[in-house]
Every structure is written in C-alpha cells, then in structure tokens.
Amino acid sequence: MKAEKLTKNQSVDANLAELSAFLTANSDIEAVDCVFVDLCGTIRGKRYPVAEIAKVFQAGLQMPFTIYLLDARGETTDATGRGYGDGDPDGIAHVVPGTLARIAGTRKPHAQVLMSLTDNNGLPYFAEPRNVLQSVAARFRELELRPTIAAELEFFLLDKDRLDFGAPQPPLVPGTLEREASVSVYGVQDLDRYVEFLEDVAEAARIQGVPATTVTSEHAPGQFEVNLHHQNDAALAANHAVFLRQIIRGAANRHGMDASFMAKPYLNAPGSGMHIHVSLVHKSGRNVFDDGTPQGSELLRYAVGGLQAIMGEGMAVFAPNVNSYRRFVPNAFTPMNRRWGYNNRSTGIRIPAGAMDARRIEHRVSGADANPYLAIAAVLAGIHYGIINRLDPGQPFEGNAGGFTDVTVPFAIDSALLAMENGKIIGEYFSPAYVDVYCATKRVELARFRQHIPPQEYSWYL
Q1: Contact of 339 with 275, CB cutoff 8 Å
Q2: Ramachandran category for residue 301: left, alpha or beta (phi over 0 → left; psi -120 to 50 → alpha)
Q3: 370 and 273 in contact (C-beta within 8 Å)?
Q4: pLDDT-derived band of residue 197, with 50, 70 and 90 as boundaries?
Q5: Average pLDDT score over the chain
Q6: Are residues 220 and 246 in the same domain?
Q7: Are residues 154 and 101 part of one domain?
C-alpha cells in the first residue's frame, strides 16, 4: 500500500473534540495513558496528568522508534542497528481516533488512548505492527472486498505463588483452600466458581468498549476462552484482542490471581491459542465465501490455499517464542500440518458449521501469545495471496488430522525465523524491511534467553 501523509490540520480539531466530550462524560479522570503495542504485543507508553493531555491530542508526543523493537522483557535489542546503533531517535506519535477509553479497576480514575508513530517524513512508521496490518488489509480494497474479523483468546488463571524454579500452578478455587483441578470442557460449574472474576472481565470490557461475548471453560484446570464480536475493521479487531488481554490480566490481579497467555504453561495440559475468524464482504454487502452451497465458494477455497501457502513462513509470527512450539503436539486440537476441513477442529484451517451466509474461515494456528496485529496481518496476507493466485487447497480432510506432522512446517523458533526470512509471501506483504527487523529482534531475544542454563541441564549433564 502506498503510504499517505497524516492530514494533521484536519485531525487536530476532531481529536480535541473527542477529548473534550470524553472528559465531560468522565470528569473524575486524573490521568491518561498514551499507549503503544510493541512487536511482542505488549502494551507500553507514558502516563500524563489529565491537565497536560490536551497537548498530546493537539501536537502528539515524542517516542523512540525502538518502542516497537523491544524483546519479551522490554529490553532494547538494537535490531538492524536501530537503538544503540543510530542513537535511538524519536518519532512523533499521534492519537488513534476513537481509542480513548476509561480503564476499569484502577486505584485512581484514569483512561488510555492508543498512539501511532510517524517517521521523519510524517508517514506511518514501517515497524509499527498496527501499520503492518493496515497495509495488508488495504490490499483488499482493490478487490472491492472488506475483511470481517473476530478473535478468540484462551488463557490460564494461575496462583500468584509459584512452584520451584518459577513453575506455575492452578489457582485456589475462589472461596476455598482447594487447588483447582477440574478438567471440564464447557463446564458451567467452572464458570460458576469463577463468576465474580468473569463478571469483572465483562464489566471492564464494557467500560473499555471491548466487545467480549461468549465465555467457556477449556481443556485444563483454570483455562478459559473469551470470544470477541466480529469487526469489519482489521485494526479494530486487533485492538480488541490486545486490550482484552489487558482487561483479563487486570481482573485476575484484582481477584488475587494471575492470568497468562503463555502458549504452553503446563507440559501435561493443552496450550492456549488465539483463533482468528475471517470472512470477506463485497462492497455490495455479500459474503463472498458463500455461494449458496454447503461447500462455499471458489474464493473460499483459494483463501484456504493461500493460508496453506503462508503457514510455514508465518510460523514465527503465529508462534513467536521458544515456549510457543510446545503447544504443537499431536492429537491436541493443535495444527500439526496444512490440512483443512469442514467442521473439523483437528485441522488448522477450519470451516465452521453454521448458516451459509455467515461462511467464514477459522485459523487455528496462532498461540495466545502472538501479537494480534501481526497474526491477523499474516492470515489476511495468506488469504489475499491465495485469492489473487487462485491456489487450490486440495480436498478437505475428514477424520483426525492431528496425528500427522508436516515436516515442511517449522515447529521450532530457529527454523521458523529462517523460513520467515526466506519466505516470498510474507516479505511481499509485510515488507522486507519489517521481516528483517522482526527476525533480528527475535534473534536477540532468543540469544538472551539461551544465556540462562536450565536446572535440567545440571541434573542431566553436570
């Protein structure tokens, strides 16, 4: 997508009007967090007293470009010489219209607003994950199509007390001294036991404008899933996923627990995924994945073919760290290959059952630890690539697809980063410069991670 300069004069008045209306309705607000979402999907930023926030809405704020290039612990990586190598320069960040919202459960009333960085030419900064997604989504305009997207996020509630070496354990059942041990998929009693926490999540989401919907208990003690309502704006759908994680973590903390979106906190339990649902709507309002047949349209099949094609080179985005790959085990409703199917959860590319006019693809590859902007961008890139190249996905799979491991898919972070660097599709859609800086950042993170010797290395080899 050809980037366009921000029209500052046209937006400042609208920004100030949004701020004024918000503060009129929320006169008790004492501070506003100006937040950024980095490469790892972590929320970072600055906190402004409410008396000083108007200048941000009018002129923006300065923030180093490296805010987007930190490792999982928040340390500078100097990726491709950005950081120490170039003096860590600032760009100008502007508020993203419509994202100012009150935050629930804080000690003092405060709000937050999402920010977006511009480069020295006033253009959207290439290494901001949200800008990567917007660039990919814009390609559908030429096809007169609009992606409609929703995410589902799985997570674990954990006890704040850790076991040896920091290992997690399930929380105590609220109101008891009993350790949570229930494995009851779709268990309503599980929801009842955590009803105060779940009600807190729902209320915080309402206050923050995040459209959380269905909640289910999942396949392990203390594991839940929260669904988000679909959106016809890809960046907005990703915003909701990012802020839902923030909301869940905050609610868990208020109830004396931790919430984790780590892909695989327990070896003997299923991991946590982020399932991405996508349909494509023509400018006429028609869902182009529906052609009136149970199988769906040719465009649906081409989209599936594109998702198959990008899976290998997208793994470093769908599974962004060492732990992410522990989630991929056979026969665990986790994709081990490129197979697709109708109403088949053992496939990574699933066409859910339901009304034909709501025909959609469920992409089940990403872990809950993935950056929502980048994961959705990679899914949309695959769909677009499959459509314009009319890729045939082969026959849909019936039965258990989870017992077969596709050796051409990189199920380790090192090989996944190499596949991303060498991939033609993701480089074309994300830009070669972003692929380079992403892989460089992740390799620095990986090198730092490997500087620590795990206890098992001593017990096995000392």
Answers
A1: no
A2: alpha
A3: no
A4: very high
A5: 94
A6: yes
A7: no
Same domain for 100 and 156: no
Q: What is the C-alpha radius of gyration for the chain, rounded to an integer number of angstroms?
A: 22
The count of other CB atoms within 10 Å of the CB of residue 331 is: 11
Q: In whole angstroms, how far apart are CA 185 and each of 168, 224, 260, 341?
A: 21, 9, 19, 22
Q: What's 87's domain CATH number? A: 3.10.20.70
- In whole angstroms, what is the distance from residue 338 CA to residue 396 CA? 11
**What is the pLDDT at residue 333?**
83
Amino acid making up residue 124: P
Coil, strand or helix at 275: strand
Task: Find the mean pLDDT for residues 151-163.
Answer: 96
Tokens 């099949």, located at residue: 301
Q: What is the value of pTM for the model shown?
A: 0.95
| 185 band by pLDDT with thresholds 50, 70 and 90 | confident
CA distances from 276 to 152, 362, 366 (A): 7, 6, 8
Strand partners, 179: 172
Q: Residues 6 or more apart from 51 whose CB is under 8 A from it?
A: none
Residues 224-228, mean pLDDT to the nearest whole number: 96
Residue with tokens 């459509």: 387
pLDDT above 90 (res 105): no
* pLDDT digits 0-9 by tens, 240-285: 999 999 999 999 999 999 999 999 999 999 999 999 999 999 999 9
Residue 2 lies in a domain: no
- Report how far apart, in Å, the C-alpha atoms of 9 and of each of 3, 15, 54, 99 are: 18, 10, 15, 19
Q: 109 with 148, same domain?
A: no
DSSP state of 41: S
Number of Cβ within 10 Å of residue 184's Cβ equals: 13
Residue 3: pLDDT over 60 = no
Q: Map tokens 């354990």 to a residue.
A: 169
| CA dihedral sign, ordered 204, 206, 209, 215 | positive
Query: Do 271 and 351 touch, CB atoms closer than 8 A?
Result: no
**348, 311 in Cβ contact below 8 A?**
yes
**From CA 226, how far away is CA 158, in angstroms rounded?**
16
Integer Cα distance of 182 and 371 in angstroms: 29
Is the separation of the CB atoms in 148 and 278 below 8 Å? yes
Q: Both 106 and 210 in a single domain? A: no
Q: Are 203 and 215 in contact (CB under 8 A)?
A: no
For residue 52, give its domain range. Answer: 8-125
- Same domain (yes/no): 120, 243: no
E strands, 314-454, in order:
340-342, 349-351, 361-363
Question: What DSSP line would sit under 61-80, residue for residue?
Answer: EEEEGGGGSB-TTS-B--GG
Same domain, 212 and 117: no
Quick one: average pLDDT of 174-188? Answer: 84
